[in-house]
Specification:
By secondary structure, the protein is of the alpha+beta class. It folds into 2 domains: about 15-65, no CATH class; about 70-115. The protein has 2 helices and 5 strands, in the order E-E-E-E-E-H-H. The strands form 2 sheets. The protein has a 3-stranded antiparallel sheet, with no helix packed on it. Strands 4-5 form a two-stranded antiparallel sheet. Helix 1 (about 70-90) runs antiparallel to helix 2. The radius of gyration is 18 Å and the shape is globular.
């Protein structure tokens, strides 16, 4: 049996997807339930949830039609860098986190987000 700390409060994050006539995302916005918050526009989102029962990852990946390739490259670069940092913080596995960061460096250089060398 897994330990679950008592819940003191809840918070919500809202994601709104507006679709075009072909049912592709035309606009994506998000906001929280904090008082006086407004919707924040974005061009892409990657949402991964780890199902506690099935131990599978459920993913929702969406981007708008006006997301340019260079923007997608930057989005993935920043996401991969954050994933490597999160993995290190969660597991303290320096060897694998370092290998992930090496790939992030390679990805950044190949997409010309970072200078080579």
């Amino acid at each position: 049996m897994e330990f679950s700390p008592p819940i003191k409060s809840r918070s919500s994050i809202y994601i709104h997807i507006s679709l075009d006539e072909q049912n592709y995302p035309a606009e994506i916005t998000w906001q929280t339930d904090a008082p006086d918050t407004e919707e924040h526009p974005c061009k892409a989102m990657l949402l991964s949830l780890f199902d506690a029962n099935t131990r599978d990852t459920v993913k929702i990946d969406l981007w708008t039609n006006d997301m340019q390739v260079m923007e997608m490259d930057r989005f993935f670069f920043q996401t991969l860098r954050a994933l490597a940092d999160t993995y290190h913080n969660a597991t303290r596995n320096v060897r694998l986190a370092s290998a992930m960061q090496q790939f992030v460096q390679y990805f950044g250089e190949e997409t010309e987000i970072l200078p080579r060398g």
